[in-house]
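Hey, quick one: can you model this chain's 3D structure?
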Amino acid sequence: MADLPEIPPQNATIDAYITEVKDKIAWVEEQQSKGLRTTDYTLTDFSETKRDRMWKMKQTGEMTDTILITSDGQSEFVHMDIMLELGAKEVFFGKEKASNESKFVKEYTVKEDISSAVLSKMVHYAYLEKCQLEEEPASLVIALSKTAFKYGLNSLLKYCIAHMMKNCSPPIAYFAYELTLTYNRSSSKGSSYASSSLLTIDSKAAQTFFQKFIEDHFEEMVGTVIYVFGGSNGREIFRTMCACDVGEPMRARTAGSRNARVGQWERKADMLERRCYVSSTVLDGRVYAIGGFNQQDRVKKCERYDPTTDQWTAIADLNYSRSDATAVSHGGRIYVAGGINDNTIESSVEVYCPVGDRWQLVKAMASPRTSFSLASFDGRIWAMGGNDGEQRGGSCESFDPLTGVWRAEAPLVNGRSTFKAITFMGELYAIGGYNGQSPISTVEKYSPGSGHWRVVRHLRHDRSGMALLVLPNDFLPLKI
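Sure thing. Here's the predicted structure for all 480 residues.
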């Protein structure tokens, strides 16, 4: 048998080379079927050698016939045939552009939601059927998985889910659970982007795995302690904090005690500043108090409470003073949006990075909002309802931290302010609130991919301005 084909010279085409390789493989298979010895190379070895060769050619720019350009101007030189093995080009490639390289090279602008970092991983996987994810942040792994899921790149999706199961963390577990939940629903409905299986990954088993991880780590992630701080009684504004450990009854019951009542409220360290209408959230086991009203002014000051030391520490000030805003933690950062400043209702949004201790302004919401709800859901930050200065509305929008873009979402069935929104079992709930005339008891939920809110069972009582928590099933028998 003749030697295996060498890498073609510069004036050859990659199509001709691939055709020659296929002819060689067909000849080898024919010879082997006859029991004849062909070469020291095996088909598996040759397949791996081909991919390695193509990757080396891509790195040096040899024979690349396509340029992929992201919305931020970054580019990747690739071989189109290799990318087509990953998925059809019309799925994730945008419009063809005239190339400045040569008439044999085509340029494509990839879809806007594919970042340069995600594209780089996609290209790496297309060539080698693997890509380095171990040292990458969870946000990139999640973004890559979202892209693979959205465009039906099932082999890449399988690879990402296998990685997430092996390297699970709380942010990955929550995202992956919602992803597998949505995938399984889409598969059962025959959705086009879930038409093929996850190959060797059982998506039902993956869903169960991530759900179990969440349940096992719930206490570690949010603890069993409820904190109440700040506020006003109508006459004065407080900086006191109290805490109640709802885990005490469970520990007592485990130890054999019949007393399953919730533990007592305990006084904790006071905040540094008096404040009401304050925004708060939890990140990395610490409580954040953001902005608020001190009976004279809307404030910029923010502080952080560490339960291990029972101490509050001042952190960087907001860019804008605000009260009646809403905060949420997402992807290792804190987002605060909307609220009231001394002049008007805000639409601005700020993000806090603990590492640099600074607040940075990002793209504002499309609508000003106060007394609304923020939630981290389906890989995005959702802003829902609230008061825009004229009415209690039901409009919703969501922010993608990876692209920095807000998009409109399906509106609530019932406009409301001073309500609470939570995520539970992969779905988003809007609960209670005020409709401009009275408190309400209505509850709505939004399921990923449904495109609309659906009214579900109401609360037993009308409630507005309430607090809301999700507790593990172990705490259902408790009376709080």
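One thing worth noting: The mean pLDDT is 78.
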